[in-house]
Design the sequence.
């Protein structure tokens, strides 16, 4: 396997791409996908640390955290998509900048 | 357990591990093509018998070449793509449906030593890959730019994610029992390996311990593979053929190949997980010949039951289908997992597990019966089928 | 460079390119399909990091459920029928912010002196039996909490999706 720096840099790029998606897109579902990409990058980082550091530190807690992260991300997606579909039903739009009822 | 037979030993040449696996996969693909032809012919014959017809008879002796003729016709047909269809999504969708179905065969043990790879997490693997082929279905539905295709694709997706859950939970009950047996034998883990699960069923197939699990698994398999009575995604009278309505020629036949291969995979999975695969009743000593015959006989019996169900039940409505999964099957599957957990944690014997599962199955059937009766208007409905009556010519003439 | 490394870099390239596609694609369904490729790449990296269990969980949850839900929501919000601008007004700012973040992260990753030796050939595979053992002993309380969280999320999703008959 490559040295851990390479894995970390790849994950950093993935995370930055996710951030870019969240900041530039206006469709709520696309933003959600970008958030998932960010979460995946974080999960990958945790797993990489756990696997590379297993011999030195003797445990692999990062993998357990990755497992929990995946599960929580699934719950988040289910709820967020429920909200998006609900918003679309009420306001006929899935764009976050048009959902501005509470804006002053 | 002995290791798998390595093909390179047959051929007398050394080859890398992945080439060996690839050759086995190609072998499975070729075999499944023939299997699909045979299944289509048999389905037509069996259905015809159920409906007091004779089925295909013209092509070859007793119509046995009918499927081959159909396949030849499909291969020579023009491959049409609608002008407004999304080119990439439309053409790639076929492969997203087709490839996962074959990848699912990797951990399935046909005999003690015949499988592509003995995956330690084989059970989880099959269900993980099962979810992938629905992506192809949605791609086909969306890429065709046809509202019926889109409706069919969305229906298929809703159905697949609803029935995957009770199916997985039902089969998880078996894994719990297998893990318990392995723990008794002093082993930790291994209960997700399909070959180990079969190995545990030397004397008792798990259908006896998990009858409810088997029934839920079969219902889930029907729904996952869009078989009647759960064929809303491909219902001709509602969505004119569903997600593959715009496909023709070889692409259409690839959808069909995937469908029937998926059906065969489901019954193979059912036969390994619930019916004891190659192991029950003769065991590992019976030799490879008996083992393959046993596995295939169990799979064929299950396929026959699926054909039978097709002839027996009318199609459900889509809302009934979803309600049945979430409100009936899922709670019962969870109940079974809970019951298994409690009994196994307190060291209860196997027959208690089987009895509780059977009791749950009986209550499931009773619940369905009560629900259907209530829906159909309580006691006022006639349970006796209407008998066909001969109408005489005088009755017709008098206008009765 | 060993075969594993070549495969790793190839998968990483596919993963990053498709992730870039998700954020840049002009067609919303293409973005969703590229998202699947990204998640597949992540699962493949798990596999290369010898965590097969996590790779299968990723496939099962993301490939089987999350992606389907996202595609479902796309169809329900009629992504294709109404073409519209997919990028907000803050686009230049977003790109700049992401670049800045990326520079910081890479600088941190490269300059830190990691304990793990970089030139080791193989990494030790993590047995999934051990993962299961740890989850159900050391981490059992978080596990139960996650279970409760999941059921709350499920209830919430059902509540959100149920139409309010009084309003109509």
Sequence:
């Amino acid at each position: 396997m490559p040295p851990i720096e390479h894995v970390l840099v790849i994950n950093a790029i993935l995370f930055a791409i996710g951030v870019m998606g969240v900041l530039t897109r206006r469709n709520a579902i696309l933003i959600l996908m970008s958030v998932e990409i960010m979460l995946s990058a974080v999960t990958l980082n945790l797993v990489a640390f756990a696997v590379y550091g297993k011999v030195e530190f003797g445990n692999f807690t990062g993998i357990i955290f990755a497992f929990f992260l995946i599960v929580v991300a699934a719950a988040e997606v289910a709820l967020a998509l429920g909200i998006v579909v609900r918003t679309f039903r009420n306001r006929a739009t899935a764009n976050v900048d048009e959902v501005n009822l509470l804006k002053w | 357990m002995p290791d798998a037979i390595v093909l390179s030993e047959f051929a007398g040449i050394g080859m890398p591990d992945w080439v060996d696996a690839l050759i086995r996969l190609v072998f499975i693909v070729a075999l499944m093509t023939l299997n699909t032809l045979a299944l289509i012919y048999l389905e037509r014959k069996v259905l015809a018998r159920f409906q007091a017809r004779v089925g295909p008879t013209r092509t070859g002796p007793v119509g046995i070449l009918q499927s081959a003729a159909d396949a030849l016709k499909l291969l020579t047909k023009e491959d049409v793509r609608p002008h407004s269809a999304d080119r990439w999504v439309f053409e790639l969708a076929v492969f997203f449906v087709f490839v996962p179905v074959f990848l699912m065969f990797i951990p399935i043990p046909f005999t003690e030593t015949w499988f592509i790879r003995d995956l330690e997490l084989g059970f989880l693997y099959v269900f993980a890959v099962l979810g992938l082929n629905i992506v192809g279905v949605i791609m086909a539905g969306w890429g065709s730019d046809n509202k019926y295709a889109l409706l069919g694709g969305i229906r298929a997706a809703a159905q697949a994610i609803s029935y995957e859950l009770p199916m997985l939970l039902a089969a998880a009950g078996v894994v719990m029992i297998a893990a318990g047996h392995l723990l008794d034998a002093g082993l930790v883990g291994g209960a997700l390996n399909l070959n180990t699960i079969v190995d545990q069923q030397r004397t008792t197939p798990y259908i006896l311990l998990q009858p409810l699990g088997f029934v839920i698994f079969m219902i889930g398999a029907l729904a996952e593979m869009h078989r009647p009575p759960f064929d809303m995604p491909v219902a001709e009278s509602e969505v004119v053929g569903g997600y593959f309505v715009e496909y023709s020629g070889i692409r259409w036949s690839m959808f069909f190949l995937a469908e029937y291969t998926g059906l065969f995979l489901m019954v193979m999975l059912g036969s390994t997980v619930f019916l004891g695969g190659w192991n029950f009743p003769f065991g590992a000593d019976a030799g490879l010949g008996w083992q393959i015959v046993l596995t295939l006989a169990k799979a064929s019996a299950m396929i026959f039951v699926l054909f039978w169900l097709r002839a027996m039940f009318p199609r459900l409505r889509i809302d009934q289908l979803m309600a049945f999964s979430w409100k009936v099957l899922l709670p019962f599957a969870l109940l079974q997992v809970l019951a298994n957990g409690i009994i196994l944690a307190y060291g209860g014997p196997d027959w208690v597990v089987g009895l509780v599962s059977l009791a749950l199955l009986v209550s499931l059937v009773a619940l369905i019966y009560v629900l259907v009766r209530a829906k159909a208007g309580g006691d006022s409905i006639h349970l006796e089928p209407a008998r066909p009556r001969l109408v005489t010519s005088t009755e017709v003439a008098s206008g009765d | 460079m060993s075969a594993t490394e070549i495969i790793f870099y190839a998968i990483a390239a596919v993963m990053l390119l498709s992730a870039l596609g998700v954020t840049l694609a002009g067609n919303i369904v293409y973005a969703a399909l590229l998202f699947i490729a990204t998640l597949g790449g992540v699962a493949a990296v798990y596999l290369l990091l010898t965590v097969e269990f996590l790779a299968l969980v990723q496939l099962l949850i993301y490939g089987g459920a999350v992606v389907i839900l996202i595609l479902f929501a796309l169809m329900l919000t009629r992504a294709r029928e109404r073409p519209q601008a997919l990028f907000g007004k803050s686009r230049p700012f977003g790109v700049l912010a992401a670049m800045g973040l990326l520079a910081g992260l890479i600088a941190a990753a490269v300059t830190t002196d990691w304990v793990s030796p970089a030139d080791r050939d193989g990494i030790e595979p993590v047995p999934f039996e051990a993962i299961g053992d740890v989850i159900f002993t050391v981490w059992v309380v978080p596990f139960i909490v996650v279970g409760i969280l999941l059921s709350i999320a499920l209830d919430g999703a059902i509540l959100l999706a149920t139409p309010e008959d009084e309003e109509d």
Summary: The radius of gyration of chain C is 21 Å. Chain C touches chain B at residues 29-30, 33, 36, 52-53, 56-57, 59-60, 63-65, 67-69, 71-72, 75, 80, 128-129, 132-133 (CB under 8 Å). Chain C has two domains: 1-83, 127-168. The helical segments of chain C are 3-24, 28-48, 52-76, 91-111, 128-135, 140-161.
